[in-house]
Amino acid sequence: MRAGRVTGAEHEGQYEGGDGVTHAHGEQGDGDDVSGHEGNAGTGTGTGPRVDISELVRTRARHPEAIAEAAARRVRRPLLNDAGRLMIVAADHPARGALGVGDRKFAMANRAELLERLCLALSRPGVDGVLATADILDDLLLLGALDGKVVMGSMNRGGLQGASFELDDRFTGHRAQDIERLRFDAGKLLLRIDYDDPGSLTTLESTARAIDDMAARRLPLFVEPFISRRTDEGKLKNDLSAEAVIKSIAISSGLGGTSAYTWLKLPVTENPDDMAQVMETSTLPAVLLGGEVGDDQDGAYEKWRGALQLPTVRGLVVGRSLLYPADGDVAAAVDTAVGLL
User: Fold this and answer.
1) What span, in angstroms and rounded, lies between the C-alpha atoms of 14 and 132?
2) Which DSSP category does 174 fall into?
3) 104: DSSP letter
4) Helix, strand, coil tally for the chain in percent (to 5)
5) How many angstroms separate the CA atoms of 52 and 110, rounded?
6) How far apart are the C-alpha atoms of 90 and 71, rounded to whole Å?
7) Any bridge partners for residue 248, and if so which?
8) pLDDT tens digits, one per residue of 223-263
9) What are the pLDDT digits (tens) for 118-147?
């Protein structure tokens, strides 16, 4: 049984696999639309190839083993490209109940649209891979969108957005053994530290053990640390001052029995000019995260551009600001971010 790219029946170049899933799994050139249909990926308009949800559901219901089979034959690649840089698109937000983008409260709740945007982003030249939870990565495996890409599994998603237990961030996503079994390439975890919340200690200890488990398998783990605090209204807010980011780097760099396979996933500080000092805190390789950009997409690009020149910064891991840009042009947003590298 084979699983490939699931698309709408109107696309050209498709064929029927033995599992009944409609495929468009031909050779791709740089920038080709993943469906095999010349359209959105080439022009940068719209949200990419149509994903046929009914076909995905049919495969999941009748042939759940197709996911493991697709993972087993996925074509892998090294973590870093020839230039030593990394461009990853992130889509692990929904598993925390974080579905909003700008003023669209449930923008990421439409799974077909999210998958279409992801497939379009992954088809763009210079995009190295994706970071997501199991449900999304399983869909992308069935769609055949992960060949030759770096695949990063998101590990701790238990700290649900807005919950009283948000900082007791349990590891409810991928485990180290899952990432190894599925032949994925790396893991990622979020570490928010609030000195006034004892839940942070649980997350610190769990993070250290996850680092050990990943290192034992020689798998990279991207740690995203923040110093956080609750506002008077009870909302959790990350501190992006230089002092706070320096502390978060120092704390997270020292976790676990070895740092050999630890990477950092870091925000740009409130004052981008502070990044040179901040990045002197550790010798661990780092990538920049996107965060909330709002309507100031150009401002975000400029912040990333400066920080990417620092010696420990190796790339970008960006999600909503590229998948849901203010002007709706996913391909253009992704291409601009790639150009910064």
Assistant:
1) 27
2) -
3) B
4) 35, 15, 45
5) 13
6) 19
7) none
8) 999 999 999 888 999 999 999 999 999 999 999 999 999 99
9) 999 999 999 999 999 999 999 999 999 999
